[in-house]
């Protein structure tokens, strides 16, 4: 594998946690291997590994973009990642308020609903 892939896996594990990455790796098949390599090198090895902005800021941007584009399935994963990126609940709410104004209240409302559910799950698993 490439240096970018190796850096991507390192960053992916730091942001999403070993358990999540291990599950994703176990589910990988020959069919989706090219896609998994693409996102590991591109998203994790390039974008998330850049030191141009902080991981906290990347979390906020990612969550806002996911909500604004209606890609809700990944919001819980990225809410869980905030425990490692430093984005607070207040940061997330600020991002979703921007979504409400610039992309629509229904999208922000649904993202907030998912965030609340995910934070509640995270709190229960801490017990």
From TrEMBL:
Recorded E.C. number(s)? 4.1.1.44
User: Which keywords does this chain's UniProt record carry?
Assistant: Lyase
* Tree of life domain: Bacteria
Pfam families the UniProt entry points to: CMD
Domain Carboxymuconolactone decarboxylase-like: where?
Answer: 35-116
Gene Ontology MF, one? 4-carboxymuconolactone decarboxylase activity
Q: Does the keyword Lyase apply?
A: yes
Q: Does the keyword Lyase apply?
A: yes
Q: List the PANTHER family hit by this protein, alphabetically.
A: 4-CARBOXYMUCONOLACTONE DECARBOXYLASE FAMILY PROTEIN, CARBOXYMUCONOLACTONE DECARBOXYLASE-LIKE DOMAIN-CONTAINING PROTEIN
NCBIfam families attached to this UniProt entry: decarb_PcaC
Q: What is this protein called?
A: 4-carboxymuconolactone decarboxylase
Tell me what organism the protein belongs to: Marivita cryptomonadis
């Amino acid at each position: 594998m490439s240096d970018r892939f190796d850096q991507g896996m390192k960053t992916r594990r730091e942001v999403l946690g070993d358990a999540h990455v291990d599950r994703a790796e176990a589910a990988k098949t020959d069919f989706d291997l090219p896609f998994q390599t693409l996102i590991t090198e591109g998203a994790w090895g390039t974008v998330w590994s850049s030191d141009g902005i902080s991981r906290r800021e990347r979390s906020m941007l990612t969550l806002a973009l996911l909500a604004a584009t209606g890609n809700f399935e990944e919001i819980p994963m990225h809410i869980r990642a905030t425990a490692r990126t430093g984005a607070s609940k207040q940061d997330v709410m600020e991002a979703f308020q921007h979504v409400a104004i610039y992309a629509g209240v229904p999208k922000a409302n649904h993202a907030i609903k998912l965030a609340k559910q995910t934070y509640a799950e995270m709190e229960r698993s801490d017990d």
